[in-house]
Specification:
With about 325 residues, this protein is an all-beta fold. Helix content is about 0%, strand content about 60%. The protein has a domain of about 200 residues.
């Protein structure tokens, strides 16, 4: 019924409609929301300030989290719409490997504008990263983890506050140079045992982090594999597994910082030179990588071995990020 004051009072019943229409309200963190929605709602108030209350459910639901590139599947009959907020309690989600997590979400709004959301995810195992270098040049790969993730913010700024422990199947790649701006002759330097060298390598990254504020605390375990990429063009990279506590912080201004120590238990280093020399070194247990700010200024202290039939039988070397010393 409509009055002279544009007041509304409607009972609305919706059965099995396409839930993708909700994507327009979720673009701050997903551009792919699907499902079949049904609802029993009441619409009242003024046309310019509608009040929608009631309950809804979604069947065969799925959502792609854009920044992580991970997709989750769900079904719920427990969506509660109140005057200025929408709550989804105890929602069970599944990744494509059928791992499970629990979500509690609440979305606040002002007559369906000025959305503010508060989402909490907890899991014993969930697929939480599925990216490549084109999607995120700062760090990428596949990750499975247990822990807690709080996602809060608005349509223009999303805050990720994450505490995770790595699980088997995790492979994280961390580029330490921009291969397009660094030539191998400026990066690889052979020196004598008593020599020292410091090369200033200009590193430029152009990653759009607008609207992202991330604080990731990661307990890395030997189940996870970490790959440090010195030069992606020629395949110059170090792969290892170990343990440590790392913290990654990304600000909407584009700043990316890393903190913490990673202790290597085992791994290998593929040394290449102009695609002519290609040797694989075995990394000794006890190596350490330390970050204290910029991810490109890590302190790397490792010993690696390359066995040969000629004398001497073993070659030792250490690799700082901006130099490679052969002893």
């Amino acid at each position: 019924m409509k009055t002279v004051n544009d007041e509304m009072d409607f009972d609305i019943k919706v059965t099995r409609i396409n839930a993708s229409v909700l994507t327009r309200y979720l673009t701050s963190f997903t551009t792919d929301f699907k499902g079949i929605a049904s609802a029993d709602l009441k619409l009242r108030g003024l046309a310019k300030q509608p009040i929608l209350t009631g309950k809804a459910k979604i069947q065969k639901g799925s959502m792609l989290i854009d920044y992580l590139n991970t997709k989750y599947f769900f079904a719920t009959d427990n969506i509660v719409l109140e005057e200025n907020n929408i709550s989804i309690p105890d929602l069970e989600i599944n990744d494509k490997f059928n791992n499970k997590g629990m979500v509690n979400a609440r979305v606040y709004h002002n007559s369906f504008s000025d959305f503010v959301f508060d989402v909490n995810v907890s899991t014993n195992k969930l697929h939480c990263l599925n990216t490549n270098a084109k999607q995120n040049e700062l760090f990428y790969g596949n990750a499975f983890a247990s822990g807690i993730c709080d996602i809060t913010g608005t349509e223009n700024l999303v805050n990720f506050d994450i505490s995770l422990k790595s699980l088997p199947g995790t492979i994280v790649n961390i580029p330490l140079t921009d291969a397009e701006n660094v030539e191998e002759k400026d990066f690889i330097t052979f020196i004598n045992e008593n020599d020292s060298v410091k090369n200033n390598v200009e590193i430029k990254k152009d990653v759009d982090l607008s609207g992202i504020n991330l604080d990731l605390k990661l307990e890395a375990t030997s189940d996870a594999q970490v790959k440090l990429i010195f030069d992606e063009k020629i395949g110059d990279e170090m792969t290892g597994s170990g343990s440590g506590t790392l913290r990654m912080k990304i600000t909407p201004a584009g700043e990316f910082n890393m903190f913490g120590d990673y202790n290597i238990e085992k791994g290998d280093y593929l040394f290449t030179m102009q695609n002519v020399i290609n040797k694989r070194f075995i990394i000794d247990n006890g190596g350490n990588i330390r970050w204290s700010g910029s991810p490109y200024d890590a302190e790397i202290d490792i010993t690696a071995r390359y066995k040969t039939y000629a004398l001497p039988p073993t070659i030792y070397f250490k690799i700082p990020v901006t130099e490679k010393e052969f002893l």
